[in-house]
């Protein structure tokens, strides 16, 4: 193993090879954490996709009018599962890694923002599906962009682009109708669940 420092005339001199090894170790740790947290993406991709499908069925009259009855159980299932998996898979080394902290924090931020909007919008009677869609698409795109950067997984930039293109498409619509719920379901399966499965497989946990 290469030492982090060489000795030159009694002084400790930084060893570039050691620095490079440290950087590579951090990148590998980032990839491992991304693979572990693929479980979070699998959970949320499945939960959100199913919730949007049920919401669509309700909107087109195939089910009774539902909203809180869909999203409250979704959050009550998703958040406890996410916290349980996070506590079960985390370790001290990962918690102290800045890149990994950024990775976990960006997904937590999405959950906080969307939950606050849901609670505030419903309680005030000002909840708007179009606004929620735009908010979700922009946040997901930004999260994937950050994840791609810190984990050095370049294919995840495509996920970011997919959410941002969806965001752009929604801004061009003259009206937001029930079809957007079906599209959101597809996006959650394709751009959240599927990348989670890929990451989990890359980590050797498929």
How would you briefly describe this protein structure?
The protein has helices spanning about 15-35, 40-60, 70-90, 90-95, 100-125, 130-150, 155-170, 180-200, and strands at about 5-10, 10-15. The chain is mainly α and about 210 residues long. It is elongated, with a radius of gyration of 21 Å.
Description:
This protein is mainly alpha-helical. It has one domain. Helix content is 78%, strand content 4%. The protein has 8 helices and 2 strands. The chain has a two-stranded antiparallel sheet with strand order 1-2. Helix 5 packs antiparallel against helix 6. The radius of gyration is 21 Å and the shape is elongated. 23% of the residues are buried.
Q: SSE order in H/E notation?
A: EEHHHHHHHH
How would you state the average pLDDT, rounded?
80
Percentage of β-strand residues: under 5%
- Determine the fraction of residues in helical runs and give it as a percent range: over 70%
- CA(first)-CA(last) distance: 32 Å
Shape: elongated
Q: Supply Rg.
A: 21 Å
Number of strands: 2
Count the DSSP helices. Answer: 8
* Structural class by sheet pairing and helices: mainly alpha
Number of domains: 1
């Amino acid at each position: 193993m290469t030492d982090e420092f060489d000795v030159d005339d009694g002084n400790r001199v930084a060893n570039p090879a050691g620095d490079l090894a440290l950087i590579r170790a951090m990148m590998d740790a980032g990839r491992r954490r991304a693979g572990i947290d693929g479980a979070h993406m699998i959970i949320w991709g499945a939960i959100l996709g199913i919730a949007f499908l049920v919401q669509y069925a309700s909107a087109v009259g195939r089910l009774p009018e539902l909203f809180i009855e869909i999203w409250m159980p979704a959050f009550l299932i998703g958040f406890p599962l996410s916290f349980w998996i996070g506590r079960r898979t985390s370790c001290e080394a990962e918690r102290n890694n800045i890149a990994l902290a950024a990775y976990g924090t960006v997904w937590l931020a999405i959950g906080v923002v969307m939950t606050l909007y849901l609670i505030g919008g419903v309680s005030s009677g000002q909840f708007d599906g179009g606004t929620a869609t735009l908010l979700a698409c922009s946040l997901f795109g930004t999260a994937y962009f950050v994840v791609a950067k810190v984990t050095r997984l370049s294919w995840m930039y495509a996920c970011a682009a997919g959410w941002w293109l969806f965001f752009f498409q929604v801004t061009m619509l003259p009206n937001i109708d029930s079809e957007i719920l079906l599209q959101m379901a597809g996006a959650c399966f394709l751009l959240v669940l599927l990348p989670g499965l890929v990451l989990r497989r890359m980590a050797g946990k498929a």
